[in-house]
Known about the structure:
By secondary structure, this protein is an alpha/beta fold.
Amino acid sequence: MKLKDNWLILGLCLIVTAININKAYHIDDAFHLESAQWIWQHPLTPMSGQINWYDNNEDMHHFNQPPLLFFLIAIVGGLFGYSEPVLHLIIAFFCWLSIWYFNRLLLHFNSRHRYYLLSIFALCPAFIVNQNLMTDIPILSFEMGFLYHYMQNEHRKKNLIISMLFLGAALLIKYSMIPLLLAAIIGLVIRKEFILIPIVFIPVFMLLLWTAWNKLEYGGVHIQDRPKNEISLKLVYEQLIALLSCIGSVLPIPFLFWNGIKPSRIWVYLSLLFMIAFGTFSILVYFEKIQIHPANTILNGIFIVIGAFMVLALLIYLVKGIKAIAVDKQIEPHFPFAILTIMLGAMTLFLLLYAPFMATRHLLLLMPFLFLLMLPVLNLSLGSIWKNALFSVAFLGIVLGISDWMYADFYRTMPAKVKVKPGAWTVGHWGWQWYAKQQGFKFYSKDSSVVELGDEIVFPRHISKQVLDTGTIIKEIGEYTYKPTIGTFFSVHNFASMYNSYYNKPSWEFSKVYIDTVVTAQIIGLRPRKWAHSK
Length: 535
């Protein structure tokens, strides 16, 4: 790599890390922190700790993720403390590794516009917002390490071993990498590298060791016992629409792809016109010349159309590639196209069927395959359309990154501002759970906490939280909030929309309302417990 590459990678890492380094713990971070604290004290029984992430304390093996990342957080946190800057340096390393490997992949596949594409990748809102202390950037970096070494022809056996070690590590952070294991085997069959197939069983062996550990620890098999979706056509349809919306909300660059599919200056003008129209639309909404609710409905429609337009370009390219394979009557000469198509298709299908909801962090795992597969098209896109695309993505990345920083910070600062009697209870998950406990609030469990008349309870209105026992009657006595600012106009605080979105709930939208409201209440009545468990 050139010196210029290293400076660009460093600069992109610094931009992303500057937003994340002192960001409040957010969304799943609290679960990861509590898991890590348990593991630091009980490293041999990592799945036996209990965490309240719904209504009551539950064993950690009831939840989705295996604990490799939590072990890393435990080691760093146990040795150096659990402050945000310290632990976010872990993610900063994986951020650098992701960008570094993506650059190596772009070099390998001969990208003509490598610096633009690398910048679009790193400054995309899906990459910036999903830093936190989450699993997504670590598995993204391992995913790209896996792909880079898998594609190398020199020192084939050595590189394949490294590739499978990356994949095994990714699987021990999140099982959603399983489709890549199947794709890796198919790829070796395509290349007739049958002698190398046993190497692919390295991650299988790692999972078997993890399963044996599960059996010894609690008698189950974690990968098998996790919560699962009830698969239906309705689920797939709604997940697909949500995925299209996610694509359009963070990658508003369809003209970049179409400029390569059908080269013409018209796409440059259309991209510029779209940017002007979007800016004008946003200003009119901000100054209330257009009402926010219908504007957000239109916005989600725009996201879905952009996503569909990009997927259409992908499908046209795939049809051409498949026709080329049919003409040659052999797939091996088209190996890069074939394996990237298989990996992108397998990962997409897995997420549509098994992800509990769609989110930008899921799209993040698809982006490398999408960009690399479409490189022959992107290589044909010329002129200022690359500048327009980079500006669009970087603008959204920065403003949504700042908005999400402010969203997370609300739950860090509010526990210290609330005025209640000592010993008050709290309900509420995500970052609030971590900071409220640090402030000394007692954390409520629906079926086991014993409350008394006159006790006070504190909770944010609009986050995931425990259900109070049906016999507990409360009276609200106070509210705390912040006035909305221009920093949250591009809003991600519709129930953490960048982290869980649906066909009718986009990843972000316009907003001029409060981020949230923290309520103080008093328990004024206690009826006998009915032990009803409902959300």
